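quick q for whoever's on today - can somebody do inverse folding on this one?? i tried earlier but teh output was garbage lol. tokens:
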């Protein structure tokens, strides 16, 4: 079973209220079993919501309590991102997911790139909070760009 970011399948759960629909991913999943989730909504954040970025060394630092996830209005939403990651992990375990395909660049779902925390559009190497937690529990995570 594959866990998939809901926004990639056309669900309007992106911070802007839009989605990141990927026809290529939809085609890839046609003959596969999958379940969808939006970690940020599962963490209690609304849609739409202020954009957020990780300030720190990526998702691992947030899980360790050493970094923060801040909105562009400087609100600390770290708790919601950790909670969303934990709820997503529960779903992944419930459905015996061994792989996840998550949205690259997201502070939750980024698998190799995240924004640098400056809200200037600069991406850096790193992974989101949910990706970090899933990987800690042996779930393989790739991005839609890897399909």
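ok took a stab at it. sequence:
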């Amino acid at each position: 079973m594959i866990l998939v970011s809901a926004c990639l399948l056309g669900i309007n759960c992106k911070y802007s209220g839009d989605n990141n629909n990927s026809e290529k991913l939809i085609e890839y999943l046609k003959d596969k079993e999958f379940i969808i989730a939006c970690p940020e909504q599962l963490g209690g954040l609304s849609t739409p919501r202020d954009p957020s970025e990780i300030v720190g060394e990526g998702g691992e630092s947030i899980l360790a309590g050493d970094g923060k996830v801040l909105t562009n209005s400087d609100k600390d939403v770290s708790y919601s991102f950790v909670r969303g990651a934990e709820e997503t992990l529960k779903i992944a375990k419930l459905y015996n997911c061994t792989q996840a395909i998550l949205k690259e660049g997201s502070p939750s779902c980024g698998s190799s790139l995240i924004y640098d925390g400056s809200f200037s559009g600069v991406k850096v190497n790193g992974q989101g909070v949910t990706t970090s937690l899933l990987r800690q529990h042996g779930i393989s995570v790739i991005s839609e760009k890897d399909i």
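fwiw DSSP finds five helices and eight strands in the chain. also The helical segments are 23-29, 39-42, 59-63, 78-94, 129-136. so keep that in mind when u check it
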